[in-house]
Amino acid sequence: MRSVGTLTRADLADAVHHKVGLSRSDSLTMVESILRLMCDSMSDGENVKISGFGTFLLRDKGERIGRNPKTGVEVPITPRRVMTFRASQMLKDRVSGA
Amino acid sequence: MIRSELIEALAQENPELRPEEVEAVVTCFFDTIAERLASGGRVELRGFGAFSTRERAARTGRNPRTGETVEVPGKRVPYFKAGKDMRDRLNSD
To answer: A87: buried, middle or exposed (CB in 10 Å: 19+, 13-18, 0-12)?
Structure first.
């Protein structure tokens, strides 16, 4: 597998600029807007489903007892909401090279 | 929220753009991420999270219906880890 660097917001904005033809600054604004809208939706407790890409799912986890691995001291882990990602079959196929 | 609702929300915030442009932006956004993952790279979006890929080892599976064993080859799978800001935001009420 060829090793490639890390893609960032700026690279996404660059791709939008080249493929869609918006100005560089408008492209960056659009990238930020997409991320903000997805974030807002999830902090409102909604899952985000992007067909062809995957689903960002919220899961509520109950309280459980954890342990500090260094000291062995037991500490309660508070209930929390976590975000998971389930890739769509299309994305899985692309990544596995199928 | 689904993809079409995301496009709708973006279109409302950007009335100067044509609907096809907004659609193309969203397509380009997710396609560019997928492309980078497909070539073994990583995508880091500060505040949101990071996409990467992980190797799954080959294993011996079993057809639950027939009980037959099958060799499942190793593969690469997409992986996402939410960023700290995102995690904190989900738990601030």
So the answer is: buried
